[in-house]
């Protein structure tokens, strides 16, 4: 290029990316524009410079004035529009030219001439191009439309004169339809194109849509690049295109006629740049008629490029360059030299959309969890998406254009089919399978592709259409991700027993993915045949409205509906297995299990919702689908689900020395009640509070439940303050609260069925008994597997029974969480080995203090475990590790490795570690921006104060509180964050959150967490709690105090710069985080760059010298003592203030409740009825007010229980009644049966 040096691409998606590709080839600097919704689009990443549009997602790409301002600011030479948006907007094209830049496209006059269809018809007619018989000029009114239709003969088509892209068209078969369509077409033209004019053409039902690619130099010269067949259309939108047209190939001489007419019309108006002449071609006579001219680059231009070995975008840029040079356009000699003779081979394009074929191909926005495009010789891909891309609801859902070029049409069909069937997109539904079905259809193979092709094409996806998602339905597989860690949950089914049996009944392997259904199930429309089984807590199950049994293999035929209702007995979860699983669901780190809390796995990382589509296998094996051999688990083998649970547990990891003996006894003697807050991430218990054996948590925190952070075993009883919570499979992987008692692995399936309102007691067992329980569960599953495989009979299987185990241990003989200890000696710290159930051992160094020497030892032990050549390795039974500052939690398979032999192995490794006080640890220093007192933080605090707690010692300014709690000023706190290195001592908890400790002991500060913790924390939140800083990588709940915002350090799907699919987290242990302050505006700009995937972290590789650090510890010991004393005095004062404010708040909450005697008095009134809570829950939102007149089925309040939203509605008999009294407020806790509000019934 001589003059064209900088190009602005005024478009988005795949066409923007495709244009940038050619511009780079020509060494042209590219400027991309984008909206927030498109921040991570490939065109944003690939351009030399990307600029965020200020107009918002809906209008950004249509704001011509703003785009021109951006072009001016970046000294752009030319603007190229692609297609859609402003590509055929003559006013914008003129504004570009007026601004001194070249419009890469035809002149505004050309755009105007062909933008009005009836005018375009006149131009075509004048140039001698046949036009479809139709009205002369515009139709004036409805009667005129009828008159013209009768003159032309039915069928006819009414067309908006300014329409495009299939918009504003209506086919009419008779007079009545013409009259009906008139107002519709007029309205759509007025709304979509600001032009109500319309005209009429005869409709040819047996026709082809064939177009010719032309190129003009603006000086009256034009050439063509053959034709394309674009007849396969849905709602006048092209689906599959071909070059050359198979119809034209069958009619010698037709190409020459089509192309000659197209060139004649192009030259008649001195057209410049690329354009397309579209024809309607009669299938019966091969007569052709002009339809319209598209004055832009077409979506399907790529197949022409493949067959004619031309780069049309390059040609457009060369034309623009010639215009910039004042030449008017490409020289006629060069242009005519480019005129090709015949196409080489054949090419097919398929447009891949995110759309739901079960919902009339409605757009399907969402996250693309997996994108894998097949690459073949002859294939071409134009796309803007990759794994992790988010399909926005704001734009056309086109994901990609897949193209294949073969030496023959047959080869092209073969290659395209392979592309479509071997490429993979997981996330929202797409049309990949639909496209593949078209390619192998006999009419398509024969080249009989008329515009009515899809009307006769029957496509039935093998899938499940989610009519309703139920209360909480997720995709799980077994065992989930037990070896993942880093703050990404274990996942998998809460009740693995029912899950595995369901899979066996339908002929699957035990671990294949299925649906976990909580409390109330989904309604599912099966679009293809399937074999299913529902196992677990009893639920109301109906197939096409008729009751259907659980624990049974059930055959479903296409078109049937399966509705899973509410639980009808004990337990809360059931599992629907589908033969063949759900092949369209993406794997994430080897599992399809959903962890909604961190947004990973399953269907877009969330629970199922109406409109979702789950693919199934297409062909069912005969032995599975045969109705002559149903498989049903006998009632005597079906597990029982009571409302009172007795669960076996082992002591530990933290019991004696943390809890008193009476506390430990209390755990086993208490009949605990299950709170409304019982979900996959935690099951809260209601019962007595412990007395505690310590007055505080030392360096772990002010409360005696606090300890230095350590890894949490699954199934453990965790004490968050005085409140007990059992941690199931989606719990955080580490934290800083005491865990005293851990349920054994053999009881996990029963723990998974505990629900709000149930009661629970702990029954202590020995390790051998716990292992035996697990063996019995596994044996039970194995026996069922054999029967389902045709080996044996159910009659020979004994029911699962724990009752005959010799439970000798009692609360008075509680055992110990500590199973071994090595005393401190020389450079060897005290090493304590604590058990966590029958599958976890916690190795703890020291006495609970934060010491980087211990972190060094944890790292060394982890390395030794991974490199060990002994019989105990990660291939022989070790599963995962979670390292924190002074401890290492090791997850192992207790059936493959005995606890005794493992402890012996660990003590042997410990001896081999030696003296690490002079170790040099690999480290990286991150230099991150931070901004303070931001609007996001203020909004989060405001939200907290309005919905959770109105005042506290840490409100309204968290930073001020943290400073005061340490005897500092706020400016001092900022200096600590800005002037020091914070060492990552653990990475995990929630989405790879780095927990950091200031390297310099003089800069270590302490503060309590928010009570209650927040339900919302902004992404990138720098926060402080206990002795540590934490960086929240994603929006999440949290309790640490808010102390600034920085750039996050995680990318779930690994598509951003600095991340990968195998490593979606940034920080590692022993990394050092440093901060430099930036203004909030600059921070937001950098965060936007991060969201687009282009942020470059500043990282310096270094070595952390433990000898130097230990010298620092020694030199500052006395100084640190003085600092700690000052901090303790400040913390005592702040604790007193907090106690006063908490007492005041508790009193106000109690006083705000309606007195029970007043409630009882109202209930004695015969005209008063109550609406009660259906279960133990938290009041989330009140949607009715006192004095409201209620309607039948009206939602009066929304409760929150087990992380689910439950709407409480008005019964039919209370319709017309008036709300007399509200008895609850948001955040109140209610029990099942508690009155929520009182209604005065309507007088009859």
UniProtKB/TrEMBL annotation:
Record's keyword terms, sorted: ATP-binding, Biotin, Coiled coil, Hydrolase, Ligase, Nucleotide-binding
Residues that span the membrane, as ranges: none
Ranges where the Lipoyl-binding domain occurs: 1160-1240
Pfam families per record: Biotin_carb_C (PF02785), Biotin_carb_N (PF00289), Biotin_lipoyl (PF00364), CPSase_L_D2 (PF02786), CT_A_B (PF02626), CT_C_D (PF02682)
Gene3D superfamilies in the record: 2.40.50.100, 3.30.1360.40, ATP-grasp fold, B domain, Cyclophilin-like
Domain Biotin carboxylation, chain residue ranges per copy: 3-459
GO molecular function: ATP binding; hydrolase activity; ligase activity; metal ion binding
ATP-grasp domain ranges (all copies): 121-321
Essential cofactor(s): biotin
Residue ranges the record marks as coiled coil: 1106-1140
PANTHER family reported in the protein's UniProt record: CARBOXYLASE:PYRUVATE/ACETYL-COA/PROPIONYL-COA CARBOXYLASE, UREA AMIDOLYASE
Protein name: Urea carboxylase
Species of origin: Heterodermia speciosa
